[in-house]
Amino acid sequence: MTSGARQPARRIQFCTRKALIRIGVLLIVLGLITTGGGIFMVRMPGETYSGAFIPLSTAEEDLKAELHRDLAYLGETIGNRNLTDGDTLQQTADWLAAAFAATGYEVQRQAYDVSGIEVENLSVELRGTTKPGEIIVVGGHYDSVAGCPGANDNGSGTVAILALARAFAGQGLDRTVRFVAFVNEEPPYFSRESMGSLVYARACQARNDNVIAMLSLETIGYYSDEPGSQRYPSPFNLVYPGTGNFVAVVGNTKSRQLVRRVVREFRAQNNFPCEGIATFGFLPGIGWSDHWAFWQAGYPAVMLTDTAPFRYPHYHTGKDTPDKIDYDRLARVIANLVPVITALATE
Questions:
Q1: Is residue 14 domain-shared with residue 92, that is, in the same domain?
Q2: Can you give the pLDDT at residue 38?
Q3: H or E, element range at 8
């Protein structure tokens, strides 16, 4: 009985210690945000756009129609895309490979085994002209969480990868650009050895690939002009806007230079709101996508996102369908990424 009585006390002490640690970390972050450390994390170059949107150009209208078509296929024709839903992952991989190939790329399939089933990362490469050994990776995961059609998470990122690959097809940039569609980002694979982007990043590391920047396109299709539509993990609600009408560039402190560069180039287009943060990778939401895998391999990486569960009401539900996407703003974001990537890939 004595031993049994001590065990609950130990558990209470352990839980109390964990709670105190969390409170301590929160206070440290809050202190940093209100002092010079916060400037290091949240201050970004340029000014975020706050004006009215001009009408889409003809090219952007064509892009918007392309996004409608591709997301209808992913979110409706295929729907749920994961290992628990038959051959939907292979069906998606084959469709992506055909779409890349139709644009003139040679598709690389990185296959590996997960519980006796073969899954694939798919990549295409635009070889650099003067600095081919310096590599920009632009990627996003094509799987969805079980029971979810995944139109926004992450059909929006997947169709963005395709659209960007089409936009750059045949171009000659100084640095090499790879467009990659990753498998198995969603639970239960996130942060495990079978996570597609982790498999890919470690293969890059093993080859000594000089990846100088990785952009993870993650859940980028939902925007709202309603006050209070944007939430944050505390204490970032003290710094960032409460209206969810912007795209966010998110990275850890080691990727701060890349975060700032992407924000600067995006804001230079002066036509769409953009916020940025470079902070501790362990904070909620900061490492929640494929950029995390590249951090593990020592590469600078950032996530571009609409902030997913901090804004999107249908996150990881069966209601994450193509009709929830703001195609007008998704097209604007993708169009702005073209000059961002061009700048990163230009000497």
A1: no
A2: 65
A3: helix 2-33
